[in-house]
């Protein structure tokens, strides 16, 4: 093996320098693996760097809760783990109910989470809600809340995972696309413009592009590229300490420590995974602006100074693909987080590294298997 | 949705001239301009300037009156006080007017948004009482206001023009502190023969300097190490010149190091740009016709690279005629030839001026402690530290530090951050080394978006 070839071989090859790729690389390096990450753009260029930054356990699909919970424990110690606070702050996540019917639905939801053995989701009555959110509109009747969730700075966090991974020897190749993925003996081969990379284990953490990588290896995963839109206002006087959602309308809302308010909520713009570009559709944001002003009357005096979006991968059932390949030994998938993967990044990275290094994990990954798409008819693809 | 052949953004020399020609040739033209009256920055207040103000501002300013009259008389639809805040890839232009937002479908978009002043990141530049020469001139043009005791600091034609105008207004500046480095005149001389084709500019420039000196205004040349002193307000400016340290007390310091193309529209639409080493700024890559790499997006005027008002008006007229010709309207070829020749003559003085007045290198290399992003209060040292950590370019630095995320959308710090990062790499800025511009380009009230229901919206 020439020195150049040696520099392109590893124990684990990761495709994708988002939070999942970076976190897994870091955790694998901690376990002593030699890791190379290949990123076609720059680290955190897409969904990992431009999401709303919510660190949220609240309201997750039930199968995600154990992973989200494990991730939360990592978040609480993230500053020590990565030598960077990542802008992480513990804060309540609150889903505001505007009608009694919505509140009833949230009560049932909290009960099913409790029945799984998790106690983080609680119901707030109107008075409690007002104590957490004094600026909320008077018509709000109560809320579902997770009081020790939080928020962080997405780019900063992913960048911190990258730097910490580098300090443990992980090598990053940015601006280098995985052109072709194939198998040679027991090794995975990834062809790039800078030559051939090789490792016995391959992790597909390619986000919105993860379906393409899987398809090259004969596994079906119908990823849709989406572009969730966010808007941000000029600074306002401090009025909100929580990250706020709404039970009946799409909204995600938080005031940053500097006073600006970030408003999102899943309304989508145009995403083009081929050109890497996304485009904001302002008429579609009309409702987002209206919801923010309805729930927080103080927002009627706000001014929007910026909007942004990024390309994210969404699965048809809105939960990610996490776990081993259903077809090949040494191949793992971790993509398609469907616009709520940021909080899970630290946890899924730890779980995947455990799985790759030891061959097993206690984390309940079955619901996230790529096999769930294998039998489906091609007409359900997007 | 309303649809027009051409949407022109900006009613300065280029925008007005383009609208006049394109509408005369039969195209439907809508001009959206953020100011309440035509003229842009250079001819601001041209329709309402008093005779005395016109005298102070001089004949070049007065020339704008004819252009504004032709524009008013044209068939172009003109919407003043209209803020364009987004343009989609399909050329749907979104703008705010009288508290409500609207959409218009453009066949072609002409960005005639001109230039803005290069930032002056000197110690103390964010103190109250510090302004730019351009801002001072706006006060003079729009309100007839002049500052007493102003000290003008920097380089470039506008510095001398403003000094002379203050002399003529009877409130000469307390001093002119010129930062043009030694040796620049020599470097510029090789461009002089070509510049003589447009010699009236040179005579005018020399006359301005003479007028300022004759009025007894102290002029300090080749100044370096400039600091603005003061606690809560500018109190003095100090600098080194002729081997000694000079301190001038004043509460009004006006800075200027030339103007650079406004690239907000062309960057928003993701047109290609190149780094212009001579003007030390980015400019859009344009076809002979003035079209960017984005089909249907055109640029005229200082947005193409700094050329001044006369060149901007000529570019605007040419583009108007070419858009008409492209749409199959009849346009006399000799008109295009004549305008092109005039434009070439106007351009002949630029290499000389650019060599003479290229900003001193230190203006783009601020001290670590100096703020570069005023909105988010980010210093040059923080930007350098982010690069040391591994942030590869302006967008990663922006994500990491929030520089360029404030209400000005990076208009002030964009070029600086690009150059600070490039200097750390030891290479000139590359074409994509600039903030991605996120709409709205201008602040938009939340309630206006909440009420935004354009008909047939896409």
From TrEMBL, chain A:
Keywords of this entry: Oxidoreductase
Pfam families documented for this protein: DAO
Gene Ontology terms for molecular function: oxidoreductase activity
Gene3D superfamilies (UniProt xref): D-Amino Acid Oxidase, subunit A, domain 2 (3.30.9.10), FAD/NAD(P)-binding domain (3.50.50.60)
GO cellular component: cytoplasm
Domain FAD dependent oxidoreductase: 11-355
Keyword Oxidoreductase: yes
Family matches, as PANTHER family: FAD-DEPENDENT OXIDOREDUCTASE DOMAIN-CONTAINING PROTEIN 1, SARCOSINE DEHYDROGENASE-RELATED
Protein name, UniProt field: FAD-dependent oxidoreductase
Organism field: Paenirhodobacter enshiensis
TrEMBL record, chain B:
Domain annotation FAD/NAD(P)-binding: ranges: 5-316
Record GO terms (molecular function): oxidoreductase activity
Record keywords: Oxidoreductase
InterPro entries (alphabetical): BFD-like_2Fe2S-bd_dom (IPR007419), BFD-like_2Fe2S-bd_dom_sf (IPR041854), FAD/NAD-bd_sf (IPR036188), FAD/NAD-binding_dom (IPR023753), Metab_Enz_Cyan_OpOx_G3PDH (IPR051691), Opine_Oxase_asu/HCN_bsu (IPR017224)
Cited SUPFAM superfamilies: FAD/NAD(P)-binding domain
One Pfam family linked to the record: Pyr_redox_2
Domain BFD-like [2Fe-2S]-binding: 371-422
Top-level taxonomic group: Bacteria
Name by which UniProt lists this protein: (2Fe-2S)-binding protein
């Amino acid at each position: 093996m020439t020195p150049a070839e040696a520099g392109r071989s590893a124990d684990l090859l990761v495709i994708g320098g988002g939070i999942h790729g970076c976190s897994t690389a870091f955790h694998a390096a901690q376990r002593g693996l030699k890791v190379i990450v290949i990123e076609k753009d720059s680290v955190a260029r897409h969904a990992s760097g431009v999401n709303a930054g919510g660190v949220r356990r609240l309201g997750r699909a039930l199968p995600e809760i154990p992973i989200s919970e494990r991730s939360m424990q990592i978040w609480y110690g993230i500053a020590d783990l990565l030598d960077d606070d990542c802008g992480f702050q513990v804060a309540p996540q609150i889903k505001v109910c505007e009608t009694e019917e919505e509140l009833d639905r949230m009560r049932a939801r909290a009960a099913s989470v409790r029945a799984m053995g998790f106690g983080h989701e609680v119901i707030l009555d109107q008075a409690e809600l007002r104590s957490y959110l004094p600026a909320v509109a008077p018509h709000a009747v109560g809320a579902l809340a997770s009081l020790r969730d939080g928020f962080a700075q997405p780019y900063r966090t992913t960048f911190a995972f990258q730097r910490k991974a580098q300090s443990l020897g992980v090598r990053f190749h940015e601006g280098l696309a995985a052109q072709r993925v194939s198998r040679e003996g027991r090794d995975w081969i990834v062809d790039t413009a800078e030559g051939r990379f090789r490792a016995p284990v391959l992790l597909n953490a390619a986000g919105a592009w993860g379906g393409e990588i899987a398809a090259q290896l004969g596994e079906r995963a119908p990823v849709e590229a989406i572009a969730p839109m966010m808007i941000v206002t000029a600074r306002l006087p401090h009025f909100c300490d929580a990250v706020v959602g709404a039970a009946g309308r799409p909204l995600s809302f938080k005031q940053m420590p500097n006073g600006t308010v970030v408003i999102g909520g899943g309304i989508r713009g145009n995403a083009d995974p081929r050109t890497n570009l996304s485009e904001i559709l302002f008429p579609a944001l009309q409702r987002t602006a209206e919801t923010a002003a309805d729930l927080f009357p103080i927002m009627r005096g706000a001014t929007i100074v910026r909007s942004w979006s990024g390309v994210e991968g969404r699965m048809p059932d809105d939960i990610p693909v996490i776990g081993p390949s259903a077809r090949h030994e040494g191949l793992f998938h971790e993509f398609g987080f469907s616009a709520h993967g940021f909080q899970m990044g630290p946890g899924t990275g730890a779980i995947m590294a455990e799985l790759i290094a030891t061959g097993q994990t206690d984390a309940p990954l079955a619901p996230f298997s790529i096999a769930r798409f294998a039998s489906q008819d091609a007409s359900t693809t997007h | 949705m309303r649809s027009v052949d051409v949407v022109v953004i900006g009613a300065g020399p280029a925008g007005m001239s383009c609208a006049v020609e394109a509408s005369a040739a039969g195209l439907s033209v809508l001009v959206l301009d953020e100011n309440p009256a035509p003229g842009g920055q250079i001819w601001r207040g041209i329709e309402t300037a008093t005779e005395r103000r016109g005298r102070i501002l001089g004949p070049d300013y007065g020339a704008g009156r004819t252009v504004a009259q032709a524009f008013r008389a044209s068939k172009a639809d003109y919407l003043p006080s209209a803020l364009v805040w987004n343009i989609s890839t399909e050329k749907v232009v979104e703008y705010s007017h009288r508290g409500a937002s609207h959409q218009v479908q453009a066949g072609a978009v002409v960005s005639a948004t001109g230039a803005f002043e290069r930032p002056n990141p000197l110690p103390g530049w964010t103190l109250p009482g510090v302004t730019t020469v351009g801002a001072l001139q706006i006060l003079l043009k729009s309100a007839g206001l002049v500052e007493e005791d102003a000290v003008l600091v920097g380089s470039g034609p506008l510095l001398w023009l403003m000094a002379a105008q203050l002399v003529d207004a009877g409130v000469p500046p307390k001093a002119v502190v010129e930062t043009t480095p030694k040796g620049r005149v020599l470097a510029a001389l090789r461009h002089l023969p070509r510049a003589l084709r447009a010699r009236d500019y040179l005579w005018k420039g020399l006359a301005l300097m003479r007028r300022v000196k004759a009025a007894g205004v102290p002029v300090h040349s080749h100044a370096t190490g400039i600091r603005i002193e003061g606690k809560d307000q500018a109190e003095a400016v100090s600098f080194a010149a002729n081997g000694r340290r000079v301190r001038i007390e004043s509460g009004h310091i006006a800075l200027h190091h030339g103007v650079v193309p406004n690239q907000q529209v062309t960057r928003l639409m993701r047109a290609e740009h190149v780094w212009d080493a001579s003007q030390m700024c980015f400019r859009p890559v344009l076809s002979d016709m003035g079209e960017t790499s984005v089909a249907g997006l055109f640029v005229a005027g200082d947005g193409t690279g700094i050329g001044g008002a006369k060149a901007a008006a000529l570019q605007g007229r040419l583009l108007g005629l070419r858009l008409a010709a492209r749409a199959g309207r009849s346009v006399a070829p000799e008109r295009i030839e004549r305008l092109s020749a005039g434009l070439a003559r106007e351009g002949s003085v630029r290499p000389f001026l650019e060599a003479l007045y290229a900003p001193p290198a230190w203006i783009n290399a601020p001290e670590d402690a100096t703020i570069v992003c005023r909105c988010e209060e980010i210093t040059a040292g923080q930007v350098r530290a982010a690069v040391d950590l591994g942030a590869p370019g302006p967008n990663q630095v922006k994500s990491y530090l929030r520089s360029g995320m404030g209400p000005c959308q990076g208009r002030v710090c964009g070029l600086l951050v690009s150059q600070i990062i490039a200097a750390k790499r030891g290479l000139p800025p590359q074409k994509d080394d600039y903030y991605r511009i996120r709409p709205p380009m201008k602040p938009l009230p939340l309630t206006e978006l909440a009420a935004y229901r354009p008909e047939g919206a896409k």
